[in-house]
Amino acid sequence: MTTTESRPTGRKPAQLVDMSWDPITRIIGNLGIYTKIDFANREVAECHSTSSLFRGYSVFMKGKDPRDAGFITSRICGICGDNHTTCSNYAQQMAYGIKPPPMAEHITNLGEAAEYMFDHTIFQDNLVFVDFCEAMVKATNPTLLARAERTDAPRGEIHGFRTIADIMKAFNPFEGEVYKEALRVSRVTREMFCLMEGRHVHPSTLYPGGVGTMPQPSVFTDYLSRLMHIIDFIKKAVAMNDDVFDFFYEALPGYEEVGRRRILLGCWGAWQDPAVVDYRYASMNEWGKAMYVTPGVIVDGKLVTNNLIDINLNMRIMLGSSYYDDWVNEQPFVTHDPLGNPVDMRHPWNQTTVPVPQKREFDGNYSWVMSPRWYHQETDKHLALDTGGGPLARLWSTALNGLVDTRYVKAVDGKVRIQLPKGESLPETTLEWSIPKWSNTLERDRARPYFVAYAAAMALQFLEESMELVRAGETKVFQDFEVPDEAIGCGFHEAVRGVLSHHLVIKDKKIANYHPYPPTPWNASPRDIYGTPGPYEDAVQGQPIFEENGPDDFKGVDIMRTVRSFDPCLPCGVHMYMGKGKTLDVVHSPTYGASHG
Amino acid sequence: MTTESHTTAARERIGRSEEHEGMDEITILWISEGMSCDGDTVSLTAAMQPSIEDVVLGLIPGLPKVNLVNKVLSPSLGGEDFLAPYRAAARGELDTPFILVIEGSVPNQDIIEGDGFWTSFGNDPATGQPQTINWWIDQLAPKAWAVVAAGTCATYGGIHGMAGNPTGSMGLGDYLGWDYKSTAGLPIVNVPGCPIQPENFMETLVWVLQHAAGDAPPPPLDHMLRPQWLFGKTVHEGCDRGSYYEQGDFGLDYNSPKCLVKTGCWGPVVNCNVPKRGWMAGIGGCPNVGGICIGCTMPGFPDAFMPFMDEPPGGALSSLVIKPYGAVVRRLRGVTNEMVNHEPKWRHRKSKLTSGYDPYWRP
Ligand code: SF4
Ligand code: SF4
């Protein structure tokens, strides 16, 4: 499964050094990256990713009133809590057999659009960019910085910076212009969010059945006027990102190998079309394709499916390196889906989470994260899909599908075109994102500002449609319902950093089983029972090292950029251990390939 | 994060009395590795009155120099480098006094038989195994100049201390004991909220820092150790929909702009200023915008308020008799407020788990 297909000959004997970074970041908990680095050949020989937090949502939700699920699951994540609430409500709406009024869908969509704009911006500009800022580049690749100082920024007339180094300076934490502006934008976008969902992080106005937000015209005006004041920032962000990432490819040949994986992307779709969605399982394929970000599983650049029913049925939750007891010998909760298809015991509907705290052993169990995989029937393989940090998979799937055709966003010929109106200083602009050659670190990062633009463009459409409804007097926002005695439901959505699903089983009007699968378990999963590493592990393992420092003052910036490119859950710093590594006694690499077994 | 690079010189105190006993520099050691969603840190970055940058960069007059160590906001290097001030503090060798901020509830490590952990913060240098949050709190709390609990998880246990939880999670008061006193003689300062309302937290922190500077008395706290001026009133008392309540005019579903009590709002008995203050920049704030109050600032949260979407017990009674019997209602409400101001009994440090957790629960 590793991306590293073959090793060039003429390699030097490995000089392996243990390097670990823990805590890396609060990925709703605690992410650690443990590597062996081969300094002789300047590449990462082995990588394990650990998560050391267990909280137990799927455990303590059992027996609760299903209507509470959205309020509770919001608390899974302190940055995208609303994505969870929304997804939970989707799952509940399926279980309760209801469909919220169109105005409720628009308000939810506007809230989610604001969330994407907020979260991607604070993450990219205030956290990812620290890895690309002047101070960091100076400490890790001084010759690159010298070159950046001599290189004119090709899109200078859009973003206003003359050289690449000028952009890097603007990324400097706390002092740089972009850093400070991004903090401001992250606050404005959160205000937009609060207009729709009451408060951020954990929204107060989302309910199964709709929302409680009053659709006054002023709510939409307040949102629109804020959006128009950040629209030029978004255009500049795209231009700036393109300049920096293009420069990296050009100045450091081979940088495309950093964080490169086989193309194994999953996207579960975002933003419902109120005219199509009815939340019935049987019609999920139709309304799934009508979403304004198209779902899809992409393998080696090919779209394998965009059918949410297939996507659902082939989800598998594997163990292998995680601190849990297996549940395969339990009674299944759901043997068949509502269409009569058999449901696997490793499917979230049938999962029972039984935590077993234990020691951390890298050749045994080392993580509280399980290993979600997607079963590819054609090849009989359990694929370790990643989300590309969210935007990469969303844009890729939408572009490949070619189904989105809206007022401001269109997917055509493997491209996504985004049209943004005139702002304070920049004219109307059409941005175009094309499918890249690689699924790698730089492309994950590049996709992010494009998706901010995408979200802004969709928000404009939702605002227009909301006002059309207000003017037509269609202001109902909530649909009443009864909780059935027995039901199942599933919700598919995109959390900011990628795929999100909630699976719900109701018995006696109570939650009998509930399993949320956010993006981080997909991306941060450890090796599964087949030895397949999770995406962080796979992307880091085998990647070349471009940093100019040796083992003594190694900072690990290339590894940091890779882990960060996946957007490890929170807008948190990826904090690397920059101390001196301990040289291992081992001289030969014991790991390539073998470590997966 | 040390903010050295952003601070040109220690600010001189001009015109202060000679005998002021405050300190000139203080470190905030923030640990969010409790059972949390990290939403309090995220929320904090929304604050503008004041913003965290304002405090760290010295824009608020009269505060000591603040070294904030928080992973989200840290431009430092991380790993052991990031942990260095925590390690120094644990050894009692940090060169400034420190405020320990805990985010997230504290799991019960003692219910685990054998090895293993619920959550960790870095590794134990001796064994290479994860270092538990409990170990850190045990080391740091006795040495802290002040301890601040950020968010309902840290204050009272919150969502992760819900009935049926397998981790035995509890609030800091349950863990350290409600009579805990820091080296400055302060009790734990609790800022509940799921998550914290950004300005509520920053304002409290600034007050604590002003106290550290010797310029203010300790912040006034209520019996659950909350800042009185923030949590002394109910949601209801600040709610835009209050006049509907008074007229006995209730929304029957969430389509209504009227009072939400019949659709689940617990505002009448919940201590929280969010409707009054808004969520950020005066915008948002649960019932004002159409969100039922689910009591997220309260010791009894969440269990005492579930199922959230049903009318609170007593809601109908008090809404019926509201006009003629105001005084009676206030008293009845006092009783309910008492009830929701208590934590459930299973949040404790004993080595037996009593949350009702059943690994193979089936209906
Ligand atoms: S909505 Fe809630 S807080 Fe507002 S008046 Fe009604 S009961 Fe009180
Ligand atoms: S109004 Fe209620 S739900 Fe909203 S923040 Fe306050 S206590 Fe929490």
From TrEMBL, chain A:
Mg(2+) binds at H575. InterPro entries: Ni-dep_hyd_lsu, NiFe-Hase_large, NiFe/NiFeSe_hydrgnase_LSU. It comes from the Bacteria. The keyword Magnesium applies. Its cofactor is Fe cation; Ni(2+). GO terms for molecular function: nickel cation binding. Gene3D superfamilies: Cytochrome-c3 Hydrogenase, chain B. Keywords: Iron, Magnesium, Metal-binding, Nickel. Fe cation binds at C80, C572. Ni(2+) binds at C77, C80, C569. This is Hydrogenase. It comes from Streptomyces seoulensis. The lineage of its organism: Bacteria, Bacillati, Actinomycetota, Actinomycetes, Kitasatosporales.
UniProtKB/TrEMBL annotation, chain B:
Residues 231-308 form the Cytochrome-c3 hydrogenase C-terminal domain. Residues 37-206 form the NADH:ubiquinone oxidoreductase-like 20kDa subunit domain. [4Fe-4S] cluster 1 binds at C37, C153, C194. Its cofactor is [4Fe-4S] cluster. It is found in: Cell envelope. GO terms for biological process: anaerobic respiration. Gene3D superfamilies: Cytochrome-c3 hydrogenase, C-terminal domain, NADH:ubiquinone oxidoreductase-like, 20kDa subunit. GO terms for cellular component: [Ni-Fe] hydrogenase complex; cell envelope; ferredoxin hydrogenase complex; membrane. This is Hydrogenase expression protein HypE. [4Fe-4S] cluster 2 binds at H236, C239, C259, C265. Keywords: 3Fe-4S, 4Fe-4S, Iron, Iron-sulfur, Metal-binding, Oxidoreductase, Signal. Heterodimer of a large and a small subunit. GO terms for molecular function: 3 iron, 4 sulfur cluster binding; 4 iron, 4 sulfur cluster binding; electron transfer activity; ferredoxin hydrogenase activity; metal ion binding. [3Fe-4S] cluster binds at C293, C296. Belongs to the [NiFe]/[NiFeSe] hydrogenase small subunit family. SUPFAM superfamilies: HydA/Nqo6-like.
